[in-house]
Target: Omega-crystallin
Amino acid sequence: MAGIPPPNKNPEIKFTKIFINNQFVDSANGKTYPVINPYTTKKICDVQEGSKADIDKAVQACKLAFKRGTPWRRMDASRRGHLLYRLADLFERDIAHLSSLETLNTGKPYKNSYQDMVHSIQILRYFAGWADKNMGQNIPVDGDFFSVTKHEPVGICGLIIPWNYPMVMMTCKMAPALSCGNCVVIKPAEQTPLTALHCASLVKEAGFPPGVVNVVPGYGTTCGQSISSHQDINKVSFTGSTEVGKLVMQAAGSSNLKRCSLELSGKCPLVVFPDTDLDFAVQQAHEAAFENMGQCRWSGARTYVHESIYEEFIKRSVELATRRKIGDPYELETEHGPQIDEEQYNKVIDYIKSAQEQGAKLKYGGNKHGDKGYYIEPTVFSEVSDNMKIVKEEIFGPVQLLMKFRDLDEVIDRCNQSDYGMAAAIFTNDVNRIMTFTNSVNTGTVWVNTYHYWFPQAPFGGYKTSGISREMGKYALREYTEVKSIIYRIPQKNS
Ligand code: NAD
Model:
């Protein structure tokens, strides 16, 4: 990647405390927990462990910041935008440090961490621009009345973040929430709090008033659950597994019926017809399966290849998997790092075993790589069938499943034969096939002759059990907005 600053393999850990009211503070119960480097499997540092009492404190800070008449409520919308632009500038200033920290904490290759920071900056700038443009309407009602809608912030938003893209996932929730004028309590994944805490320091430096942004690291069943069941949090935005997403929605419903955005698991189909550039399609399918060590909800986790090119596709896919550079995440040529933690490592290894037991053919990989870190080789299976566990469930690991299909109708049915509906892709040059496919698959995104591209301007989110909301784009604003209808009686209508 051109122009990428060199990593710092030993980034200083400046922030390990809970961030409330623009101050770094100890946890209410004095507990800390260890944060682990997935590359060395050694402890990086101890971080203050938030619990319900800390979430309560953060919510109290939000409440004060969100009161009528406070600097945040009185602030011009354009000024909120300026603060977000400034935060983006600070991300840019600290990009090498943030990328180095992200790699230390997640094990993802440094150049990918750097790309994540670039995306985060783009997201901040995109939503900064919306701050003074999220407006209501003037509605022509019957009679002598004047009717308008006003877009208001929902209030206090709890943002629960996963570990696979810590900064990007945090930014794509925080940026629209702040752009719309909300206050936020952010709970990073317990595994990956370090960049979120550095970002908290930048929030203060950018000039956000105290209490507007709070960051409380901690575990899901304590800290996360306190957010989803909190009586004074008005909205929860969650990214993670479908299993936990259901718990979050139940807690939101049984507490105060808080608004809920859910970005959940996926099992995305990628379909390759013979009338395409085969090398390009093989390379895209490879990236789709192995990006971020397969730890993406939009991974190309089910690759359907037309029977006429199936054997050749397997051969070329194995060649690419063989060449994928596994190694020290800080080395610029590294493409493949460790899985996030031991639990995920074991889970993926179990899926690989189950695939073999159920008769799939292991074409490459399938083992631990090296003797240090939670590394799993890029793994390629052929002769995979739809009823296997590895096809039905989200593996969240570097496992490519190659399946054979015969015609368009059949493959559309098989694509839709999933509880998930995150994204799908098709590689073909036939425009009618493309139109039928894009209009028939039940997914929130369809990629045509490409994969993985997403933009701050375009919405992203799932159908079915992959979620119930949209992030990015103008659509994200409505997730953080209440619509107020105001009706004035007037002396006389004048059209
Ligand atoms: P998870 O869903 O358990 O965790 C995601 C976030 O939710 C974390 O911040 C976690 O602390 C929090 N959380 C956990 N339990 C909670 C609860 N009861 N209430 C509120 N918040 C809670 O994901 P995980 O344990 O990190 O990974 C498990 C599986 O989830 C993975 O194997 C993968 O399949 C999936 N996953 C999906 C995504 C995604 O983006 N779709 C991201 C991470 C993990």
